[in-house]
Every structure is written in structure tokens, then in C-alpha cells.
Structure to design on (171 residues):
């Protein structure tokens, strides 16, 4: 199977692939990203081995990427909700907060910054990629060459540190 044959199959099936991905992830932008990732993955696979049934392989690759995305999004959403108590979320200064609340939130952020600066470089990178850039466990694991389980465990530890800082401030 040649790259040019794959290109023609991909172009012919692009719209159908995109619709499938949009139905699965319910987001046109994410579907486009997954479609591009599908193209890259299949191109890489073609460079590594021959693929006998190219069209089904392309669709299965796209579906697998969409399922991975959905799983990662679900884990991310669950982690965001379960790891941080509501009281901690509500303690961050809102635009309409009182001067006391703003001072408390600023002090909390300073203490969190101090605690987070004591983490290892890898832990800090995991925290930044996940909490600030919104990367999934799988994306982070791939970038750092560790398992997704390692990323999850590190984030759980980091969030426990953050919760501990917030609880100590409230005492």
C-alpha cells in the first residue's frame, strides 16, 4: 500500500470520517483534530508495515482515537470534580469578592505556589500540562515517556498537597 493510495482513500473518505468523529465527540473542532491525528497515525503505520485492508483500518484508527479522547476527557472531568473539594474551589477570589476574601485567596495562591515549587520537575510538568494546559493523562504520559497510571498517581498526590494547603489555611 503506497502513501499516494492512502491519500486518495483518505480524501475520498474524509467527510464520512469527519462526520463519524463529530458524532462521537460532539465537537467539530475536536473532530478535525482527531481526523488530522488519524492521518498521521495511519501514515506512520504505513511506514512500519503493510496494511491489507486500508479503509477499515483508517476508520478503526479514527474510532480508537475518538474513544481515547472521550475516555481521557471523562477522566479529566472526574478528576477535576473529585480531587478538589467545593470549598477549595469557592475560596479562590471572584471578581466581586471582598478585600478579605481576595487577601485570603492571594495568601492561598502564595502557599500553593510554595508547595508546588517543592515538587520534582516531572511533577511540576505534569501539573502544568494537566491543570493549566488541559492535557489528558495519555497526552502527558506520551510527552514524558511514562505510563498514564504514573501520571494519574502523580496528579492525585499533587492534588492532595493542594487540598492539604487549603485545609491548613482554613484552620
Amino acid at each position: 500500500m503506497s502513501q499516494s493510495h492512502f491519500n486518495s482513500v483518505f480524501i475520498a473518505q474524509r467527510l464520512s470520517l469527519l462526520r463519524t468523529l463529530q458524532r462521537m465527540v460532539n465537537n467539530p473542532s475536536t473532530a478535525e483534530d482527531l481526523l488530522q491525528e488519524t492521518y498521521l497515525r495511519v501514515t506512520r503505520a504505513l511506514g512500519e508495515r503493510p496494511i491489507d485492508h486500508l479503509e477499515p483500518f483508517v476508520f478503526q484508527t479514527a474510532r480508537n482515537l475518538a474513544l481515547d479522547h472521550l475516555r481521557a476527557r471523562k477522566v479529566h472531568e472526574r478528576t477535576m470534580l473529585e480531587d478538589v473539594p467545593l470549598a477549595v474551589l469557592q475560596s479562590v477570589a471572584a471578581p466581586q469578592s471582598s478585600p478579605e476574601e481576595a487577601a485570603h485567596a492571594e495568601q492561598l495562591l502564595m502557599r500553593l505556589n510554595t508547595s508546588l515549587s517543592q515538587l520534582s520537575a516531572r511533577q511540576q510538568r505534569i501539573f502544568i500540562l494537566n491543570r493549566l494546559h488541559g492535557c489528558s493523562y495519555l497526552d502527558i504520559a506520551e510527552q514524558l515517556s511514562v505510563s498514564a497510571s504514573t501520571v494519574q498517581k502523580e496528579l492525585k498526590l499533587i492534588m492532595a498537597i493542594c487540598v492539604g494547603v487549603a485545609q491548613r489555611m482554613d484552620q
Remarks:
- The chain has two domains: 3-73, 84-170.
- The chain is about 80% helix and 0% strand.
